[in-house]
Each structure stands twice: as C-alpha cells, then as structure tokens.
C-alpha cells in the first residue's frame, strides 16, 4: 500500500471512515494493521535487512505520507474509542511505532513482530505448520501413544518444544501463538481458491486433537501451558533484554541470562555435554528449576 496524502485525500478519508464504520457497526475491540512495514518505506522492506541502525528508519526512503496516515488513524481511533486497541504487524522495528503521537510516535498500542517466526520458517498464508515441517506425514500415523515412538516424531516434538521456549524467553516482550494454538495440527489452513477448486476441506483447525488422551498433542499442550506458567512465576517477558553469553555454532549451544535465570539450549542432533563451561554474570550455585521438567520429558 502506498499513497500520497497531498494527491489522494479522498483515499485517506475513505480509509479513516472505514475504520470508524467497523467500530460503529460491529463494535470491534481493535484493529491489526497488516504488513505495516510495506507502508512505512518506499522500498516496502523488500530486500532489506533491518539491523537497528537509525539510518534504516530515518531518511528519504521512509514514506512520510504513510506515517501521517497511520498517525491519523491511531489518533482518531483512540480519541473516539478509548477502548480500541491497535496492533502494527511490522518486521523492521521502527522506533516510536508504539509511542504516543504527542511524543512523536505513530500511536500503536502493540507491535506484532513478524521477523521472529520468519527466523524458523517463511510463515506465509496457506503454509504448513511448524510441527508439520518437523514431522511431515508421520503426524498422520505416529502421533498415537498406542504406537511406539518413532525417531521423527520424538525429534520433532522435542524441537517444537525447544523452539517455542527459545522464542518465548529470548524473542521479546510478548508471546503470541498462531491460530489454533499451533499444537501440531497436521492440516494447514488453506482458504477456498481456484487453486484448490474452491474447497473448504483445509479451511479448518483441528482443535479436538489436544483433547484426545491417546494422542501426543496433549504433550505439546502440556509444555505450552507449563511454559506460560513458568513465565508467570519468573517474569522474563517483562524483564530487560537478555544477555547472550555463549553462541557456539559447532556445539549448537546457546546460553543467555534474563530475569535472573540462566537459559542453556543444546540443539545438537546427537551430542550431549557434561561439565560444559558457560559464562555467568554472578558467581555461585544455580539451582535447576523443575517447572518445565515434567512437560519437557513427557
């Protein structure tokens, strides 16, 4: 989306009135502004790697007309509907995106950082779930506890847990699961279109899977539940930025500290380690928390 306020004021009025219509007619709780990155910059974020340098966010490549529109949209929504929540889907990390307009920000309440899921897979509409990428067709036949655990399912489930915990603890200040809570639903979400003969067959999420006691989806759910309860106890999402002390590509080990906790991840496919030396900020004994032990080994 790209436009100029000086030449397309009718478009701006239509967009703003459209926001108000949805609020007046359907009493929405708020809006998620999709693909905000493509609006903020003339290059639409294509072929650009955002490292955090201020020169990436301020300059002639920034679409000032789009900035003004987003500020107007947030100003109108929050002024007329104080209960309204606005969320910006952004991969760039534009400074001030969630600061108030009075402070020179764009006025959003929250930022949905889509750069994190793209670190694992290219999360596109109609794509397969992360669990399906890890376990593929075996999810249709080997997710029952009545069958012996296969190497693919065993490895896939453990990686699924590690990926979620690493993202949760290191990713930022909030955590949002994918639709259906992403407990490994084997079907991907595909809306009716010409390519699938307008079929509704895959336009669904199988929420019932987690309720089946003999399926291993319950293990994925148990881990997600305990992970969130553990965060409630220690509060790492509200803590400062994590300090990464070890990033060993050969050993596939990453170590970081956050919220007075020491996180140690081993992603090596076959190596486990004893007496592995890591740096810590404070000397002393570090007890092992058992909040996630049961869920991680089940």
Automatic annotation (TrEMBL):
One of its GO terms (biological process) is glycogen biosynthetic process. InterPro entries: A-amylase/branching_C (IPR006048), GH (IPR017853), Glyco_hydro_b (IPR013780). GO terms for cellular component: cytoplasm. Residues 248-286 form the Alpha-amylase/branching enzyme C-terminal all beta domain. It comes from Labeo rohita (Indian major carp). This is Glycoside hydrolase family 13. The lineage of its organism: Eukaryota, Metazoa, Chordata, Craniata, Vertebrata. One of its GO terms (molecular function) is cation binding. Keywords: Hydrolase. It holds the Pfam family Alpha-amylase_C. It comes from the Eukaryota.
